[in-house]
Amino acid sequence: xxxxxxxxxxxxRYMSKKEIEESFVYKLGDLAWFVPYGxxxxxxxxxxxxxxxxxxxxxxxxxxxESKYRTTRPDLLADTAAEAKKLNTNRPHKRVT
Length: 97
Known about the structure:
Elements: H1 5-11, H2 17-23, E1 31-34, E2 43-51, E3 58-63, E4 69-72, H3 81-88
Antiparallel strand pairs: 1-2, 2-3, 3-4
């Protein structure tokens, strides 16, 4: 069974575009903590791209330790690993099949 993106959007409460733009304090080159989807541990990454212009805003980061490129929502970035883990608890972890 194929599920379209609108199904997953309904599972997660997204901040409105205005809320994201007002609360977003990071800029290109900044370091931020986040929990990659499917992971349990927070990782630190350098922000390489920011796109707040579209309906589902995103931030692209490059992990510091493993040099992997990751994408996450702007509202899931934090200054510390502990804060990132707290933000991650609201995100669904079950796979939908």
